Amino acid sequence: MTDGYRTKTSEEIELMRRSGRLLAATHELIAGMMKPGVSSAELDRAAEEFIRDGGGKPAFKGYRGYPATLCVSFNEQVVHGIPGPRRFVEGDLVGVDCGAILEGYYSDMAVTHYVGGEPPAQVDDLMKTTLRSLHKGIEKWRPGNRVGDVSAAIQKEVESRGFSVVRALVGHGIGTVMHERGLQIPNYGNAGTGLKIVEGMTAAIEPMVNMGGYDVRELKDGWTYVTADASLSCHFEHTVVATADGPRILTLP
Ligand code: MF3
Ligand code: CO
């Protein structure tokens, strides 16, 4: 325990790794389906089937009444878009977030895809910057650092490119439930502040980056967040653990 956050044993980390491997493979399947004409509901069905075939369960379905396996967020939608009949069209920027449970252990991962050919330069920059900020944050997820080191690294990377980090939603502790108490990881903040990171601490780090301002609002469906200024938004997420050797990403194939 560190300030109420329970660290994981090496056995537990191995189970989270297995969960993360299944989830990363699910994302590979999804990546191959991100084509014009495919609907987000079709994507959702394929992901659920793949997770169940792999012996797992979708982590989001039934979570506070959430109805699906995936969150699929189009363009100005930031996160938590509910899958439905809407089809991808060329030029869509689509965030796909998915969680898996395997043998009682959770993993959480998000990827944003551009539908169609090459994205316009500004969209490409938004995507690459968001992914780079995630990895800059993960790099700080090591024993001896503080949560604020992660937050500050993400914020610095994003703002250096003129984009903004969403304030209203944060990364989180993860393990035997999707959102573990006692650990939140904002994507903005000051280095040297916050909870001390120790070996065995597991987290879902997930920068949400807007092309315009950082304000978001929730749609009437009670789930979907959109940017307040309707600018594009991008989201990447990995589940990670701090080890004696440094950060380790658990959501890899
Ligand atoms: N990755 C998101 C999160 O960490 C997914 C939650 S969506 C929900 O909060 F539908 F499950 F709530
Ligand atoms: Co998450």
Q: How would you characterize the overall build of this protein?
A:
- By secondary structure, the protein is an alpha+beta fold.
- It contains four helices and 15 strands.
- The strands form four sheets. It has a five-stranded antiparallel β-sheet.
- Helix 1 runs antiparallel to helix 2.
- The chain starts with 9 loop residues before the first helix and ends with a strand.
- The model has no long low-confidence stretch (mean pLDDT 97).
- Bound molecules: 2-amino-4-trifluoromethylsulfanyl-butyric acid and cobalt (II) ion (CO).
- The site of cobalt (II) ion (CO) has 5 residues, from loops.
- The site of cobalt (II) ion has 5 residues, from loops.
- Quaternary structure of the protein: single chain
Query: What's the helix-strand series?
Result: HHEEEEEHHEEEEEEEEEE
**How many H/I helical runs?**
4
Bound molecules: 2-amino-4-trifluoromethylsulfanyl-butyric acid, cobalt (II) ion
Tertiary shape? globular
In round numbers, the mean pLDDT is 97
Distance between the termini: 29 Å
Radius of gyration: 17 Å
Task: Pick out its properties.
253 residues, alpha+beta, four-stranded antiparallel beta sheet, 4 helices, 27% helix, globular, binds 2-amino-4-trifluoromethylsulfanyl-butyric acid, binds cobalt (II) ion
Brief digest:
This protein is of the alpha+beta class.
Task: Outline the fold blueprint.
Blueprint: H1 10-31, H2 40-53, E1 57-58, E2 70-74, E3 77-79, E4 93-102, E5 105-114, H3 121-139, H4 147-160, E6 164-165, E7 171-173, E8 180-185, E9 202-205, E10 208-210, E11 216-218, E12 225-227, E13 233-235, E14 238-243, E15 246-249
Antiparallel strand pairs: 1-4, 2-4, 3-12, 4-5, 6-10, 7-8, 7-9, 9-14, 10-13, 11-12, 14-15
Helix pairs in contact: 1-2, 3-4
Bound molecules: 2-amino-4-trifluoromethylsulfanyl-butyric acid and cobalt (II) ion (CO).
